[in-house]
Amino acid sequence: MPVFSAYDGTRLVHHVSGDGSPLVCLPGGPARASAYLADLGGLAAHWRLVKPDLRGSGDSEAPQDPATYRCDRLVDDVEALREHLGLERMDLLAHCAGANLAVLYASRHPERIGKLALITPSVAAVGISVTADARLATARLRQDEPWFPAAYAALRDIVAGRAADGQWELIAPFLHGRWDDAARALDAADAEQKNPEATAGYAADGAYDPEAARAALAQLSAPVLVLAGEADLNSPPPAMAELAALFPRAELVVQPGAGHYPWLDDPDRFVAAVAAFLR
Hints:
eight-stranded mixed β-sheet, 279 residues, 11 helices, alpha/beta, globular
């Protein structure tokens, strides 16, 4: 597995799969090992996926200074990866919390972005709020599912600030277009693929300056894809539309029936949408 050094000497690893032009893929979590991205539903058949394990996750070393887990400081690691790959500009794909890192990178290094694909992204870095009503309305799309009554009751308590033990586990099906064995396995692996210290440090105080990020993104000339899952409780389509509106050249695609992992819910539709954008 390819290894490179960060600015502070931390040994970082990235995993490569597929052939063709490189596509750097930032994992979510935050700070989840990139293994869960797998081949992104078959996208590796068209592009060479470069999947970094962020510092302290997967096969990458933990830094000596835990403060460097902060999202804005990870921008320098992404830049070190670009230099290691020898790319003048790079196409960048980011999932979930990785989108916060991607937009901060694009804000600081706009000239290094070829195309930017944000997959069911977090919107913390740009200060967009996802309301309780938006989450509940998205959840109600699943009301015919057998698990819905218990999951929806738990969700109502969570968004009202009354979360109890076990309720976060009950709402896991809302993150998947199909609550099947593959979805359960991905969900079960989540905690095992995270470093709690890195997760806690990712959005520490000072990580985000939404006003500055919005101003920078308004000047970004690169094409942007925002891909939302129709049934994604975490990143519902109304918030994704608000995110897309921040960019001069953004396209919003809402994948029907998909949750937070659209490449798992409908690989063919996901690959078709991303491939059409990247080409």
